[in-house]
Structures are given as structure tokens and as C-alpha cells.
């Protein structure tokens, strides 16, 4: 039945070819240095003890053989440092000197605190996820923009398509139990904008310590639970009438193998985003697909140079 359009239509899973830290440490140091330079050039005030500086110190130590994995270090800051390097390389790629002062302040605040903020001080991670989502849509060619700042609720991103504007809200829960709550809060920010749109939930922090197959399984399960919470077989629930796409994704480093001094790492991205339009092939359906597919293209643009290890050219 064409009217029953709620369905599992998800974006891709990407895994970088496993590589040893001895090979990737230098690349990540270059990413961090480039991100610091670009963000500073765009007017973001970065403090000397920023999360990027902390990440750089840890990655530099790993390049000297100090270890990177939880087993080698006794904590997960090494893997977080690598994730931070890639995230801010991505964020910096979309940064512009023309960003409003409020956005530059958010980018500054996202870099405050530790690589692993304590409970109650998690806003830097939320701001980081918002900035990555913005950059993904920028890399997909969508020309995202930030909504005007107001004292009330507002979404993270606005996307223009033809004469219509769509709202996107990114959320970042720390545990599986909070995913649905964050989705609802994100939807309230979408409807506050007066637009239809999407809620994308970054579950990276929920899958730490899991292997590749476990990450994909978690994201698939969480995506299904999100879909069930906002829609039935017959379409969107009445309380979610302005939601046209919903899903979750994770981007995380995982240990594939390790010795006392070296480690081989998987870089994993997994996403499950469902289209929720109530009438197949309607304008709403096409726009929902556009949001979903744009997010996919943007994430591929982030990961493709790493995920696709091309052989050296023949000589």
C-alpha cells in the first residue's frame, strides 16, 4: 500500500581497512594541526589546554610508542583522541570566517574541558556532534545554515531546498537508556522552528568498547527502536507529524588487534536513518530522502579517503 511509507531505508556502513597506530599517528597529528589553524583563522578562540591540544599530546605520545588502546594506557583517552582529531578535521573543513559570533563561541566551548567530560559537563560533546552534522551536510553540498539564535528552542541546522526550509536536530546521548528521550527533545526543537525536519542521534558514546559487528548491531537495533517510537506500520504517530526522517549513527575507533607496544585499529561509521513521509513519492517523501541521502554523502565524504585504501600507482 503506497500510503504505508514508514520503512527501514538506511545509509551505509563504512569501516576503514585496519591500520596500525604507527601508520596513522602522523596523519592524525596533521589533522589536528590543520584544524587548529583553520578554526583560528575563522575567528574561533581556542584555549591552550583545549580538547584538541589534549588529543594532540596523546597522539604524539602514541607515535613515540607510549600506547593508544585502553589496555596499553589504562583508559580510553587514546581512542577518544583519534576520534577528536577526525571530528575536528571535519568540523574545520566547513568552518567559515562569516560564521556568526554565537557559532564561533559554540565551537570554542566545544573544545573546553577534557576528552572525557564528567557527567554534568557533557555539553562540549553535544556541541561537537552538532558541528560534525553541520559539516557533513556542507560536504554533501547542501549549503546548511545556522538558525538565528533566540531565547527559546531552536534546531541545530536549517537546510533549504527550493522554496522550502527543513530543520535538523542532532542529539548525543551517553547511554542507550537516553536515546528515545533525546529524540523527543530533538523533535521539540524541530517543531519550535516551524518547519518539518529530522532528528539524528549520535550514539558514538553508547558503543565505546564494542567491536565492528557489535557496533553495527547496536546501531541497527537503536535505529529500529527510534523508528518504532515515532511511527507505526500506518505512518507517523500524531505527536510526530512534523518529523520526516529519524535515525542514529556512530563513528568510533575500535581495537582490531594489539601487542604491548602497537595496535591495529578499525575506524567504524554505522548509520540507520529511516524516511517517515506518509505518502510515497510525494514532495515530502523526496525531501525526506534528500535529507537522509545528504547525510550519507557527507559521512562518506568524511570517511572515504580513509575507508578506501587505494593501492599505490604502478611504476
Distance between the termini: 57 Å
User: Whole-number average pLDDT?
Assistant: 88
The major β-sheet equals: 7 strands, mixed
**How many H/I helices?**
9
User: Total strand count, please?
Assistant: 9
| Low-pLDDT segments, ≥5 res | 1-6, 307-315
Class derived from helix and strand content: alpha+beta
CA-atom Rg in angstroms = 19 Å
Strand share of the residues? 15-25%
Helix % is 40-55%
Commentary on this structure:
The protein has 315 residues and is of the alpha+beta class. The chain has one domain. Helix content is 45%, strand content 18%. The protein has nine helices and nine strands. The strands form two sheets. Strands 1, 2, 3, 4, 5, 8 and 9 form a seven-stranded mixed β-sheet that branches. It has a two-stranded antiparallel sheet with strand order 6-7. Helix 1 packs antiparallel against helix 2, helix 4 packs across helix 6 and helix 6 crosses helix 9. The longest helix is centred in the last third of the chain and has 25 residues. It starts with 12 loop residues before the first strand and ends in an 8-residue tail after the last helix.
Name the features:
single chain; 315 residues; alpha+beta; 7-stranded mixed sheet; two-stranded antiparallel ribbon; 9 helices; 9 strands; 45% helix; globular; disordered N terminus; disordered C terminus
Give the gist of this structure.
This protein is an alpha+beta fold. The chain has helices at 21-41, 51-63, 70-73, 77-94, 101-110, 123-139, 179-192, 212-230, 283-307, and strands spanning 13-15, 19-20, 157-161, 164-171, 197-202, 231-232, 235-236, 243-258, 263-275. The chain is built from nine helices and nine strands.
